[in-house]
Amino acid sequence: MLNDPLFILVIVAVAAVLIILLMGIGTFGVGGKVARKHSNRFMRYRIYAQAVAIVLILLFIWLRGGN
């Protein structure tokens, strides 16, 4: 399965969602001006990345004949 480029793309997309999520949570933890300036932006980016990851997962399942 690691030879499948679509699977690798799915893994990268899921990892990107995780990284963006952790960065957003980190800005909430810092608080103050940093949180006001960046936390909502990170969470918005997470939503976009998560949507892309879900589409890629569904595409992978559909193309590989999953039930």
From TrEMBL:
Ranges for domain HIG1: 1-67
UniProt keyword terms in alphabetical order: Membrane, Transmembrane, Transmembrane helix
Transmembrane domains' residue ranges: 6-35, 47-65
Signal sequence annotation: none
InterPro entries: Hypoxia_induced_domain (IPR007667)
NCBIfam families (alphabetical): twin_helix (NF033233)
Protein name per the record: Twin transmembrane helix small protein
Organism (species): Aliiroseovarius salicola
